[in-house]
Specification:
It contains nine helices and ten strands. It is of the alpha/beta class. Helix 5 links the parallel strand 6 and strand 7. The longest helix is centred in the N-terminal third of the chain and has 16 residues.
Length: 236
C-alpha cells in the first residue's frame, strides 16, 4: 500500500502544472459604458483562455494605478488617453463608443447645440472622465461630482445647470435611480471611439487582443455582444 502511494505521488510530480493567465484591469466606477466594456472584454479574454479581474475606481485613481503598473491596464478610454500617458499601449481596434451629451432639467430655458453653448451655463461633470474634461477645457463654471447619480440630482438645485456624460450613462442613471424631469439634448456634442489600454509591461497582449477584436468585428459577433451587454447592464 505504501509503495502504491509513493508511486502515485511520483506520478503527480511528473505532471506539469497548468499556469492560468490572469490579469487585473481598472475601470471607472459607476459609468454605464465601463460596465458594458467589462462584459465585452471579459468575453474577449476568455477567447484567449485568460481570466481577468476588473476593479472599479474613480477616474483619476484608475489612471494612476494603471500608469504606475499596479494594475495591468484599463477597460476603456478615448484615443487621447494614450497620447497623454506613455506608460500604456492602446489596442488599435476600438470596440465601443461614447457620445458626450448634455443633460438638463425639463422645462428649463437651457439650449445646448454645440460645445460653445456650454459657456452660458454652470456645467456639471464626473471627476476624472477624459471626454468631459476635454470639452469643458477653458470654461470657468465647471463643477466635479463623484458619480453620475449625484451629478444629475444636482440639476434640481439650479435650472441653469447642464450635466455632461455619455448618453447611455445618463439615460441608464435616470432609469436606475428614478431621476425625474431630466432629459438629454437632441444631439451629442462629440462622439469618441473607445479603446482598451494595456500597461507596457504586458505589451505581449496587445496584438493578441487586437486580433480577437478584428475577428469579432468581421464576423458580426462584436455587434451582437454589444447589444447583449447593453441589455444586461440596463436590466441589472
Amino acid at each position: 500500500m505504501l509503495c502504491m502511494i509513493i508511486r502515485f505521488l511520483f506520478i503527480l510530480c511528473l505532471i506539469p502544472s497548468v499556469n492560468v493567465e490572469q490579469y487585473h484591469f481598472a475601470a471607472i466606477s459607476d459609468l454605464y459604458e465601463q460596465k458594458v466594456g467589462e462584459i465585452i472584454l471579459t468575453h474577449v479574454y476568455q477567447k484567449m483562455g485568460i481570466d481577468i479581474q476588473v476593479t472599479g475606481m474613480p477616474g483619476n485613481r484608475a489612471a494612476i494605478e494603471t500608469t504606475k503598473g499596479r494594475v495591468d491596464g484599463e477597460i476603456m478610454r478615448i484615443w487621447s488617453y494614450g497620447i497623454d500617458n506613455s506608460d500604456v499601449i492602446r489596442v488599435p481596434t476600438p470596440y465601443y463608443f461614447l457620445e458626450t451629451m448634455a443633460f438638463y432639467k425639463e422645462g428649463s430655458d437651457v439650449v445646448v447645440n454645440s460645445a460653445e453653448d456650454l459657456a452660458k451655463y454652470s456645467v456639471l461633470k464626473v471627476r476624472g472622465v477624459k471626454h468631459t474634461n476635454i470639452i469643458t477645457k477653458g470654461l470657468d463654471n465647471v463643477y466635479d461630482y463623484d458619480d453620475t447619480k449625484s451629478m444629475l440630482n444636482a440639476l434640481d438645485e439650479h435650472r441653469s445647470n447642464v450635466a455632461l456624460t455619455h448618453k447611455g450613462d445618463g439615460v441608464f442613471a435616470i432609469s436606475r435611480y428614478k431621476i425625474e424631469h431630466v432629459i438629454p439634448a437632441k444631439k451629442p456634442l462629440a462622439v469618441f471611439s473607445l479603446y482598451h489600454y494595456i500597461h507596457k509591461k504586458n505589451a505581449h497582449l496587445v496584438e493578441r487582443v487586437n486580433r480577437i477584436l478584428l475577428d469579432m468585428k468581421k464576423s458580426g459577433e462584436l455587434n451582437t455582444l454589444i447589444l447583449k451587454a447593453e441589455k444586461q447592464v440596463f436590466e441589472s
